[in-house]
Design goal:
The protein is α/β, with parallel strands linked by helices. It has one domain: Alpha-Beta Complex (Protein-Tyrosine Phosphatase, Chain A). It has a six-stranded mixed beta sheet with strand order 1-2-3-6-4-5, with helices on one face. Strand 2 and strand 3 form a beta hairpin.
Length: 200
């Protein structure tokens, strides 16, 4: 839209290197779990941080509500679905990271972390179909890599935070537990300076 810099991410993601000195205010480390929100067309909606909301597949009305919340970018983790026909004239950017819950890929994690820490994209709304499993895994990794949570705290929120996580997806829990966070941060261009909690 006019006067708003568009999210720099399209089909091709450019490496950010060390210029990702961004979004410190919304990323202060906290152990508070995501806050549930009740808005039309946005099932399983929760506010994770100032920069990140999470939920299930939104409707067109839900996307209008996201615009009112100030969301600028929608990240869709579903394989076969696109939100583009629901955007209307909201001006929101819709980015897809099609992933399967069976085999998470590190490249998908890196792309998500780059988007959610880029101030040209935030705030971001992250969703899959149910807003529980794939979305939960990505949110847990965000908690650890960006907000400095322990894996144990992030996994507790992921599995017990009121998102209806399907306990059959233990591979997603294992993926977070086994992930080399330092390597992911390096690949995502997350420098220490960009991750310092703000003083409130």
């Amino acid at each position: 839209g006019a006067g708003i810099s568009a999210c720099r991410y399209g089909p091709v993601v450019l490496p950010l290197g060390t210029n990702n000195e961004v979004r410190q205010a919304g990323n202060a480390a906290s152990t508070g779990w995501a806050e549930p929100m009740d808005l039309p067309g946005l099932p399983n909606l929760h506010r994770v941080s100032n920069d990140l909301y999470r939920g299930a597949q939104p409707t067109a009305a839900g996307i209008t509500e996201l615009k009112k919340l100030g969301v600028r970018t929608i990240v869709n983790l579903r394989e076969n679905d696109s939100d583009r026909d629901l955007l209307g004239d909201t001006g929101l950017v819709c980015l897809r990271i099609p992933m399967t819950a069976f085999h998470p890929k590190e490249a998908d994690v890196v792309r998500f972390l780059q988007i959610v820490t880029d101030e040209s994209c935030t705030p971001v709304f992250l969703h899959c179909q149910r807003g529980a499993d794939r979305t939960g895994m990505m949110t847990a990794i965000y908690r650890v890599a960006v907000q400095g949570w322990t894996k144990e705290d992030a996994l507790a929120e992921m599995t017990q935070g009121g998102f209806a996580f399907n306990s059959g997806w233990q591979n997603l829990v294992r993926y977070v537990r086994d992930l080399d966070i330092d390597r992911i941060k390096q690949q995502s261009g997350l420098t220490q300076a960009s991750l310092q909690p703000s003083l409130k």
